[in-house]
Structure formats: C-alpha cells, structure tokens
Amino acid sequence: MHLTNVPAIIFAGMSKQKMFKLGEILEVTIVSAAFGGKGVARIPTDKGDFTIFVQNTYPGQKVSAQVVKCKNRYAECRLRHLIEPSPDEVETEFQNIPGAPYSTFPIELQHRYKKETALDLFERIGGIQDVESKYKGFVSSPSSIHYRNKMEYSFSEIRHDLETDEKVDDFGLGFKHRGTWWAVENLDRDSGLFDKQIEDDICKVRQWCEKTGLPAWHPPKREGFFRFFVIRRSIANDTLLINMVTTSGGEGKFIDSEFVDFILSLWGSRVAGILHTVNDDIGERVEAREGLSKLIYGVDRITEVLHGLKFDISLSSFFQTNPQCAERLYSEVIELAIQKNLGDKEDIVLDLFCGTGTISQLLAKHHKGQIIGVDIVKSAIEDARISASNNGTNNITFHAADVGKFLLEFPEYKGKIRTLVMDPPRAGISPKSLRKVIRLLAERIVYVSCNPATQARDMATLEENGYKLISIKLVDQFPHTAHVESIALFERIPGSVPIINMRDQQ
Fold this sequence. Notes:
By secondary structure, the protein is an alpha/beta fold. It has helices spanning about 105-125, 130-135, 195-210, 255-265, 325-340, 360-365, 380-390, 405-410, 430-440, 450-465; strands at about 25-30, 30-35, 40-45, 50-55, 60-70, 75-85, 135-140, 150-160, 165-175, 185, 225-235, 240-245, 270-280, 290-300, 300-305, 310-315, 350, 370-375, 395-400, 415-420, 445-450, 465-475, 485-490. Helix content is about 25%, strand content about 30%.
C-alpha cells in the first residue's frame, strides 16, 4: 500500500477502527525524527494527522515498512527496506550493517537529531521547563569511525541475502538482520565501527569454521555448534582478546590448538589471549548459565588506559565501548562532581553502577575520604579491585551487590554523602532503588545515562523530591546509532523534605 499524498477525506470516520492491520506493508516518506532512532511519517485524516513510527529511519527517506502495532492515532512499524535514500545521505567506503543505520548521514546531522529528540524527552517526560537553558552543549566523539573496542559476531544457519533480500539456508557469520533473531547478514568487509584488519578477515574466520564440517547455530531449531565470535581490543595497546563460543561436542572436528594456530596466522602478535566457551543454553546470549570457559592461549585480560589510569578488563566485564570518547565523558562527570568540593574525610562519595570502577578511581584523585563503588556484576568488581590496586588508589571500597539491596543494608550512610554519581544500565535505575537514593540526602547527584528516556522519567521523580536540575550535557558515545549519553547534574534544595513514602523501606 502506497500512502504518500493520500487525500485526508479517505480516512474520514475511521476513528473507531484500526487504520491498518498487523503485518500490513506500507510505503511512507519520513518527515521528522523521534527519540530512539524512530523516523516519523504522517498521514492526514479528518481527525488530524495519523502518525507512523518506523525504527531506524531518518527524515527524507522513502521506506517500505511493516505494521507491528496499531492504535487509534499512531502505528509502530519495522523497516523492511529502503526505497529511496534521503537527499542528506552520502556514500561511504564501509559495509552497511544493522547496528549502524545512520552511517550514511553526516555526523553533524546525527548530532542535531540526537540533541533535538533528547531535549524533547526531558521536556515532555521529565517535565523540565525551559530545557534549553539547562542544556550546556554536545560532546562529540574524537573519532566517528573504528571507535569500538568490542564486537560480537553471530553465527547462524539462516543467512539474510543482502542482494535478494531473502532468507537462505547457509552458513552465516556477521550481524543479526534488523528485526530478526534468527538470521544473520554476513560481514564481508570493514563496517567502519570496530577494527579494519579484523573485519576484513571475518570472512576468513567464517570459511575456516565452515570447513570443519560443524554446523552454525540454528536459532529456531536450537541446535548447531558455532554460536558467537567475540573480540575485545585494547585501544591503548592494540591487543586482542578473542572468545569462540560453541555448544558442546565437536570432538575431532574443532580442535583448540588448530583454532589458535589459525587465529595467530591472521592477527599474530596483536592476539593477547584466546578463550573457548561452551554454551548449551537455548537463549541467544554469549554467557552461559552453566558452561565452561577455558583459556586456550595467552592471558584472559587486557589493559586499557583512561586519563593515565590502567584498567585490567576481561571479555565479560563492562567497559565503555568507545574509550576515547569515554575520556571526554568522564572529564565532564568529574568536573561536575568536584565543582563544589567533594567534602572532607568524613564525607562519603558514592559511585553506583560503577562497572570496572573508572569514575571511582578518577574521583579518588580529588577526595581524601572514603569512596564506595557498587555494581552487581562480580567480574566487573573484581576488575575494579585489581585496577585500583595497580593504580595505587587505597581509599576505595568496591562492593559486588545489587544497588537497591546495598543501600538498604547500609542505612548509616544517610546524611554523610556529599556527592553521589550513578551510571545505571539502559533500563535506568529501578523506582525502589531511586527512592533509596533520594533518602540518602546527598547534596549533589551526577546522573550519567545511556538512555535519556529512562533518565527523563527519573528527572521528574528527583525534582518532585527536593532536587533541582542544574545542567544537562549530551555525549556522542555511539556515532551512527540512535544512542546518546546524557550527563545531568542535580543539587538538593536546602531544607527540602522528600515526598516519597518514608515508611516504604522495600
């Protein structure tokens, strides 16, 4: 169905029925952008515009889209394919991949849309009035190409053919086709996001694996051998950690020593360590609930450097995907945190969702008192402790614990925290945990977020409970994607009393 320039009168009287059926195919032109990488198309009706959201599209594109949800006034669609590019798009030398849907758009235009859509969220969901006055600028990534330090490639017996736009039975290694969990697009050359040498050679890895005679994972059937190929690199040292994830079996066909020799023939001295992980879980994730991960070559950690501090990281540990831009991000965070002094030795600085402890260790340069880092990922906390010891920071205590449970177990910190920094996952901080944060009565909160939508939700709660938003900055940690990091500074209004239910201790 082609819907461009359809007269409004055709849709008269349709308010009581759905405009489109689930699965219906539409051809629409994207006219504006919404947060999260959604392009917006509009269809005039006698009741006003009917809005169509299409994921991973940009203004100016004409696309084929399939309806996945339809309400009275809007529909959500998945992108099937591009019919006509936007006049703003430019050609690149890289292979286009699902994870970088905007790589053909100039980086300045990407920044503009990220700013506009994020500020709209803060105003509309966060309830922030005059949001432009709080906005203090956009921090760009030092590089918009080859910036990632980790990439996860998927195997599948179902390959999406980019030329025919069809699914075929074939041995595939690359990235999940957009909107699917079962089909991959082969990566045949550099995507421009990770490492040119590695990605130009991924096709050789695919060929070597296929020659073993062992099958790739078949997601619908939940069977097969090869599942994931994961690589982490150190930007500072140009070294690699590699993890081949398979199911059990394969004896006599997949031999660890032969795989090691093959990898070394490709990337030689760059390879610091190689692991083989056995994952028989049916879920589509690298880490197995029950399984075995063994080191078959070298070491299981590499070192990254941020602001002169060394961090030992493993394959499974959280670490900023774009470390060069992370340095800029952390500079902004530290500057906000220390603007009004971190306090004396009796004042505690709390770093929630601390990951490998980067912010904690940077804060330790400015605070002589106690710094506490908390994260639920045990391997990340282990890495944090090692790094802190290596960097000679001895005033930090790291806890591997759920943030909410930790705050419940240590009520004695209430009133003793001058500065609190938190960097929660994409889902944001849970309402219960946020209430516990509020009860600590910290003077200032530096809230780092990789999802302005959940941060906007939490902004409203903080402002209702005695905190005032001082400033917002955006950081382009993920060029060519819809994602953007946000740094918000809150200060507690003196004498304010939280309106949350103080009897709710759960």
